[in-house]
What we know:
- The complex is a heterodimer of chains A (239) and B (177).
- Chain A is an all-alpha fold and 239 residues long.
- Chain A has helices at residues 7-39, 53-80, 83-114, 123-142, 148-162, 165-175, 194-238; strands at residues 185-186, 189-190.
- Helix content of chain B is 31%, strand content 23%.
- At the A-B interface, α2, α6, β2 and α7 of A face α1, β6 and α4 of B.
Amino acid sequence: MHKFANPTFFMKIANAIYPWAVGISVLCFVIGLPVALITSPPDYQQGDTVRIMYVHVPAAWMGSMVYAVMAASSAVYLIWRHTIAHIIARASAPIGAMFTALCLVTGMLWGEPMWGTWWVWDARLTSMLILFFLYLGYIALGDAFEDQERGDRAAALLALVGSVNLPIVHFSVEWWNTLHQSSILSMKGFSISVQMVVPLLLMVGAFQFYYIAVLVIRLRAELLAAKIRTARFNLAAAG
Amino acid sequence: MTRKRRRLYFVGLGLLGLFAATALILTAVEDNIVFFFSPSDLKARSVTADQRLRIGGLVEDGSVKKDGDTVRFVVTDNAEKLTVQYTGILPDLFREGQGIVAEGKMAPNGVFMASDVLAKHDENYMPPEVAEALKKAGHWQEGMGQERTGQNGQPPQATAQDTVQDTAKTPAPAAPN
């Protein structure tokens, strides 16, 4: 298991996955978007507004999932000190923040026409906003230290502590009265019509593989940046 | 014990403590987290006239009475009822049988004077034809969609129980402070 911690070996796998991730993501977008936005049926009570779901729901799921990846990688980094794990977390943060922001914005655009308000402080909306702030805090904290390694550890710790918010985001609509409706996916399956499940899953696939593809690009950049730092350091030490 | 093993236990125990603490805090402040009270919750607690709060439930069938801009309707959680009065523009989704959340104050005569009314919908999205077919087949109750599409494609069926659970979840009544 720990051989994956070798950055060279890890990047060999990541680079092999990359073209597939790009391909699947583009394919899902190309098929999924027209189906979601044009050919899928409108909702019986929301009409065409329901189409916001095809962006909102995948973005929300990815916002939580990317954070889970970040928290798990941070735990691996804190316990086993594998640098690659920290780099995965660090590279994931802006992507997850973007998904969460997309979820919040599309949610507001959806809430105004349907609920009659852009925003309410119910448990689901508030915990999602906290998730967004956790991402921002993680990104800021990692670069807030003179000593890079101290920053890395502080950020990893924040990611771990923030993971307490994930079950709250997920279960908020079941534990408490909220304005937000329950999840469309539960143990009993999807609560939406089959004609809507298909484009939704295509969009989920598109977002998922988009994340993987962008993650690989960012991993390459992070590893290169680390190499440059080391080279500069050696140069300074030699000079 | 190696340092890695020690760190593993440290992280594990730390997270366990953190999750437990959060669970306790959330349970303690449940009253402040719920977005609205159902008519049953409201009955179980004492509310003063100047206290702003939100109530939620289903708009009872045949209870909506309009008088100019002012509208009166009954909100129900299928157990208790509450009359709501509101002046202003209602959301598009507002109709009899629909879930709503209203913010306002209790008047001394027991009528809830709302200053805001929001529509709450459930997570059952379906094409109009499907909704129509469900209505024809009698598997329909206003304000709710079909039951969840089964994983093995079972025909959708609706039960009254789902409506209550989806639209007005009732947390255990909190002890009065």
